[in-house]
Amino acid sequence: MHTNVNTLFDNLWQDYVAITPSAQKIHALLDTYEAKHDKAKAQIINDHIALRTFNIAKINLQKLAAHFLALGYSDKGDYIFEQKKLVAKHFEHPDDRLPKVFISELLVEEMPAEVQSIILKMISSVADDAAKQDNFLYSGAHWQVSEQDYATLVAESEYAAWMAVWGFRANHFTVSVNHLSHFTELADLNNALTQAGFVLNQSGGEIKGGPEVLLAQSSTMADKITVQLSDTQKSVPSCFYEFAQRYAMDDGNLYQGFVAASADKIFESTNASITM
């Protein structure tokens, strides 16, 4: 387990940008905007990261969460995504400058038998103590799948297909619009990104949520990266960059939770079936 929370996030970020070149470009673009607006304050704050897994004992949500709980995070919310057969939790640190963490897991037993057997075979390659290792949260896939198995997973669960290729790593980082000085509205940021040539996730609308649910979110579509499967090379979606604007609750504090209906659409940023 990591003893330093900043080291953990630095490692997660380096692993993420290595397969998400658009995130590095967007980060640089926002840096430029921020520096123009106020050089002294220019910094991009990460609202949250998201991690994915399966509800199989040795690598389940709780095993991933343990790394953050050991660093002072606590469990703050539960979410259910019935259609996608997922459950999730989010975690927060007492230091609100540290990112929130959103961890989801696929309910494997609710998948068709063929999909279950592919997933169980993948997980059989994971060492029993793998989840306790310092680098587990950015250790990637501990297995390889065939093109046929990948196609079977895509047809049933885009989430499972993504996990089959990428394994354990941050699925996305999130720019906190509330902390930007150049952009004060998510819509303005989206326009700037679109003009710069980035493709945004349109599922459920470009902006998911809004002031009425205290959280507005948008995201890029995941980059396409060529990976080595067990029997061929294939171009598949990697990770994406999210943008979140939080609104004040009645007590004046910004809402810190998540909105299941919006998160449901954000998951689709990694869908292989959406052509760019």
Identify the quaternary structure here: single chain
What is the approximate shape? globular
Number of strands: 10
Instruction: Please write the CATH class name.
Output: Alpha Beta
Structural class, from secondary structure content?
A: alpha+beta
Query: If strands are numbered along the chain, what order do they take across the biggest sheet?
Result: 2-3-4-1-5-10-7-6
The number of helical runs is 8
Order of H and E elements: HHEHEEEHHHEHEEEEEH
Question: Would you kindly provide a written description of the structure presented here, covering whatever features stand out?
Answer:
- With about 280 residues, this protein is α+β, with helices and mostly antiparallel strands.
- It has one domain: 2,3-Dihydroxybiphenyl 1,2-Dioxygenase, domain 1 (Roll).
- It is about 30% helix and about 20% strand.
- The chain has 8 helices and 10 strands.
- The chain has an 8-stranded mixed β-sheet, sandwiched between helices. A two-stranded antiparallel sheet has the order 8-9.
- Strand 2 (about 75-80) and strand 3 form a beta hairpin.
- It is globular, with a radius of gyration of 18 Å.
- The relative contact order is 0.17.
- The mean pLDDT is about 95.
- Keywords: Aminotransferase, Dioxygenase, Iron, Oxidoreductase, Transferase.
- Its EC number is 1.13.11.93.
- This is 2-oxoadipate dioxygenase/decarboxylase.
- Belongs to the 2-oxoadipate dioxygenase/decarboxylase family.
- InterPro entries: HGLS.
